[in-house]
Structure formats: structure tokens, C-alpha cells
Amino acid sequence: MARLIFPNPRPRFRLKNHARFTAVLLVLLLVVTAVVVALGKVRENGDSEAASIVVTPFVPPPTPEPTPPPIEIPEGKSLEKVIIVLDAGHGGNDPGTISPYEDGFYEKEVTLDIALKVRDYLTEAGIPVIMTRETDTRLADTQKEDLLRRAQLANDKKATLFVSIHVNAYDLKYPGARQVKGMEIFYYNKGKQMMFEDFDSYRFAEIMANAIKAHNGIQYRGAIKNDLSVLRNTKMPAVLVETAYITNQEDHARLKSAEFRTKTAIGIAEGIKEALETLQAFEYEGELYVFKELDAE
Ligand SMILES: [Zn+2]
Fold first, then answer.
1. Would you call 4 exposed, middle or buried from its count of C-beta atoms within 10 A (0-12, 13-18, 19+)?
2. How many domains does the chain have?
3. Domain named MurNAc-LAA: which ranges (predicted)?
């Protein structure tokens, strides 16, 4: 008599009653749910191979960018966007000072070159710049009108700061004129009503002088009060940087050198940045702002 190698299979489940059947179904449901949830977790963890088979993962709706709180404007002040006006001295048929050592070397070319470099540094730093000129041109045919338009541009654009860039010359009819060298910074006090609290053109001149000296190492002859058209007619803190003397041979070599121009431009840009920090300029939604005195002219 042959022996059964395998005993008769017995059914695993006997459907004796409904309760038992329901219990089994429930267990099955639980198992399926557990698998679905587990696969969902796997998908969330980045195992796309396993997840792509079964479950559509839960994708949370994009969270909106949090809106920053509105700017609180202090009493007596107005909110203004930061704008720097850079003025490259002279241009066009006004060459500015002329080299006594080399034909065709003019102030207007140096001032524009430095100003364009300053513009690039500031733009790179996210500081908005407007130039009075970007090419070899002047703004009007007469010097008086040309200077007035430069100041007017800064006023119309509600500039925060105004920087005019020039090259100095000493009158060569005076003995020892060729020995005079170095940088001077001109400023003009615009009276009692200041655009910013505790910040006038003299303070701006000091900041600029220190920043430029630190970068190009030039001898500094000091800040000089000077009733110049662009300084008198601009409403914001303004300085005029006389970078170096074209009439001095050492300074002449500096003005010719790309390195000196670059370092001077970096110094001017750093001075402007430091002045903006002093004015507590701040960024709001990608734009730079300052608070100005409301009653400033
Ligand atoms: Zn000049």
C-alpha cells in the first residue's frame, strides 16, 4: 500500500460562519492598507522604483512666499529708493584739464573711465546708479548750463548721493606748481535743512576720502569747502573728488595707469557703500531704501 508522501492539504480557512469570514476580510484589508502606506513612505523617501508601481504620492500644494511685514516709516521721514548719481566731469568739446606732458591726454577721458568702473562695481553690489554721461559728450553747450543739468538730473531722479569725479591741475604759471600732487575732495554745506539726520556733505567727504586712500594709497590733501555749481545745486549730500593732479608727473603717471583708475574706482564705490551703511539703507523685497527727512528741501 502506497504511503502518501504529502498529507491531504487541508483548507486554510473554513467558512464556518460570517463572523470568521468578516474577520479574515478585515485582516486582509489591514494588510493591503499597510502595504499601500508603506509604499507611499518609500516613494516619499525617494525610492521611485518601488513607488511608481502602486501609489500616487501625496504632493503638498506649493506654499506661498511669506509676505514681509510692511515698512514702518518713522514720523517726520519719507521712504525713498536708493539711487546714486555718478558724474564724470566734462566731456565732448570740454576736455577738462589738459596734460602738460602728453598731447591729447585729457581729464574728460579719465573721469569717464573711473566713473564707468564705479558704476560697474555698484551695479554688481545691487546699488542702483544713474550716470550724468556714459559717453564722450557734455550735457549742454555752455559750461554753466552743462553743470546745472548735471545737478538737475540728480534732483529729478531724487538721488540719495551725488559723486562728481574730476582731475585736478595746478596753474603752471606759479613756481612749484608741478610739485603739487594728491587728492582733494570738495563739498558744500547746503544749509540747515538736511536730507538725512546727522549726515551732511562734509561727513560724506570724510568717508569717501578714507575709502579712496585705503584703496589707491594716494596722498590726501583734505576736504575743502567749495561753492561749485554741482555741489551747490544738488539737494542731496554731494562730493566732488579731485582724484589727482595732471600737472604733477607722479600723479600724471597714476592717472595714465589702469591699476590706479581701478583702485580709485573701487575706493569710490566702497566709500558710497559705507555712506549708505551710515544712512542705514536697507533692503526690502529686493530694493534698497533709505528714510529721508520730510522737511528737507
Ligand atoms: Zn574737472
1. exposed
2. 2
3. 151-273
